[in-house]
Design a protein that fits this description.
By secondary structure, the chain is mainly α. It folds into two domains: about 55 residues; about 160 residues, no CATH class. It is globular, with a radius of gyration of 33 Å. The termini are far apart.
Amino acid sequence: MQKNKKDGLAHEKTILLVAVTVLTILAVIGETPLNTKSRMLLSSTVADNNSAYTGELKPAAPIFTDIPADHPNATALSYLKGNHIMGGYPDGSFGPDKSINRAELIKTIIAVVGMPQSTDAMKSCFFDVKDEWFAPYVCFAKTKNWVSGYGNGTFGPANNVTRAEAIKMIVSASGMQLEATPYGSLASLSPNLWYAKYVWTADKNGLMKDWKDNTAENLTKNATRIDIATAIYALAINKVPTI
């Protein structure tokens, strides 16, 4: 019995010695199962974040040469560019402060809402709209009563579009129900103004929320490309019905 007791103690000592030896080796090389897992996770995180722990994050590529990734309207412009709704110039710039003409605006709107594929008959709908590249877009917009042109029978495709004109065209194409009562930041507009209801409707549906200097006076000034871009983006994400 004494022998069995000694054998048991010897066995326990052997197990303890092995355990101490293993822990010593792991401590020397700095590896434990938990430590190994943690280091793997850290390694993966650093790789995924482009050396985030060393402050070496690479900035995302600019959307256009004049629109950096951190531009306030980067999301809108990236969406419009990626979906071929609104692009830039041959030099890679967007020109956010440049004006946009009436033909360009109609084409941009239709890029969101769509139009019939057969456009052969869509031409010669105004005295100054015959068979040019923009004729199908303008003539289709006329059939939908989105545009009516000027009193002399012209459309003025090359004319810069004002903010009020742009809002009227966008709201008309959207199918939104017109807001009959004053609304929002431009509620002070006189109901007698031809564009008042369109502006109130646009304001209510967030089409102008990213416009700068959004005042009654500026509604008659030329719309900029960034004005149009943000309004068209708001129209697109509102999931307007397509033709």
